[in-house]
């Protein structure tokens, strides 16, 4: 796939294909760390000070062999780390052509990366990778099935407070942050946007 020109439908299709290939049994939580390291051959490296120095939680190398993650995030926020891994895999899947030519090779090269991309294109690629990560970690059908098994139905446009106990339970099931789960629930029309 080629990055900025992608539609959100392309991103949805890429996430579905990724899950069919790498999690065909619909295991929950999605074993994104194992998929990265064992199936895709991507080494996940926790490195001190990334967030402080360059303001991000992590990045993938242009040869797609390594995801470097801020060590504080890695230790303190496992759900955020999982999202970062899925997000960076999203760049590999969605932006491989562009990223292999222009992406950072390592930590020292990361600042030069921004001179190779416009702010608008960077924003589009980030939105696409975030959407991919959310769809991979909280797949639509699995989210709906989890609601149905707990509630007996799939909620439609509910107030999030009504679903709070189920919401809390689903955080553990999907092993994602509240923000990721909430956004996925809003996108699927399960809850109203606050």
TrEMBL record:
Gene3D superfamilies: 1.10.10.2910
InterPro entries: IrrE_HExxH, Rad_response_metalloprotease
Domain IrrE N-terminal-like stretches: 77-184
Pfam families: Peptidase_M78 (PF06114)
Protein name (record): IrrE N-terminal-like domain-containing protein
Source organism per UniProt: Candidatus Shapirobacteria bacterium CG03_land_8_20_14_0_80_35_14
